[in-house]
Amino acid sequence: MKIQSILCPTDFSEPSRHAMEHAVALAQWSGARIVPLHVQTPAFATVPALDDPAPHLAPGTQLIAGESPADAIAEFATSSRADLIVIGTHGASGFRHLILGSVTESVLRKVDCPVLTVPPRAQSTAKLPFGHLLCAVDFSASSLKALQLACRWAEEGDARLDILHVVDEPDEHALFVARPYDIHHHPEVYERRVAEHLKRVLPPNTCEHSQLHYRITRGNAEDEILRVAAEGGADVIVMGIGRGNSPIFGSTVNHVVRNARCSVLTVR
Predict the structure, then answer these.
(1) 136, 96: one domain
(2) What is the pLDDT of residues 6-32, one digit of tens each?
């Protein structure tokens, strides 16, 4: 995927400024242009920072009005043909957090392009440029698409890539994606076959990447992804995300985005 346009929504908060720093770093690496975007909603007309947004706008910032920030961002991303959205998480507190806290998660469900969510500076442990990627694969179509993007970023950035597959029993989690093999009585055989299958679904020539590593763990998928990312010092987690607004489908992604201490790149 060639990144030519990066859309970076901003609400003038510190987390959104931190996300902008990530967008700038990615633009410098990829040669893409950045499109800052601010959505002004009637609901926040009494918030001082949003009464007159002009003083806060950087040159080139697109200012649009909309009842729903997530809908406005998604519509703008489609009309402007953005290749990537970079957006901060937990960009508000108190009453505004109750309203704005779900904006990022709504954007994830509504857009077709990849989204990089960036945690607040105080929580972030990632370094730029990304030197260590963790890609979680459950063999769904979206996770294989995410794997393709992770492989390209790792190769182009000469970064380490850990490919993680979490073995979880069907009754342990509400979301279960069928695995390529149903062997659970012999863990060592199952894990070897999963590793073999992972190699088969890799893009051509990826196996030649010297910093490619496989991780197979057991447990709850969302907890294992966060644990492996934290213990390994990953700079970004790459995951696939499905379509729809179901509270079950996509719940793993939502949990990881809310709790990760590094950036999370979600791919449809």
Answers:
(1) no
(2) 999 998 888 889 999 999 999 998 999
CA atoms of 239 and 55, how far apart (whole Å): 37
- Asked if the peptide bond before residue 129 counts as cis, ω within 30 degrees of 0, the response is yes
> Does residue 242 lie within any of the structural domains?
yes
Q: Is the dihedral of CA 212, 232, 122, 249 positive or negative?
A: positive
- Same-domain check for residues 263 and 175: yes
- Residue 73 in contact with residue 107, Cβ under 8 Å? yes
**Length of the chain counted residue by residue:** 268
Report residue 172's pLDDT band, with 50, 70 and 90 as the boundaries: very low
Query: Distance between terminal CA atoms of the chain?
Result: 13
- Quick: pLDDT tens for 206-231: 656 568 898 988 889 999 999 999 99
Helix, strand, coil in percent for the chain, rounding step 5: 40, 20, 40
- Quote the pLDDT of residue 72: 94
Q: How far is CA 102 from CA 115, 116, 154, in A?
A: 15, 15, 30
DSSP string, 57-100: PPTT-EEEE-S-HHHHHHHHHHHTT-SEEEEESS---HHHHHHH
Provide DSSP, 168-221.
--GGG-S-----S----SSHHHHHHHHHHHHHHHSPTTGGG-TTEEEEEEES-H
Q: Which two tokens stand for residue 9?
A: 């929504």
- Between residues 77 and 99, which one has the greater pLDDT? 77
Q: How far apart are CA 136 and CA 142, in angstroms?
A: 11
- Counting the structural domains of the chain, the total is 2
When pLDDT is averaged across residues 70-87 and rounded to a whole number, the result is 96
For the CA atoms of the chain, what is the radius of gyration?
19
Contact 175, 247 (CB under 8 A): no
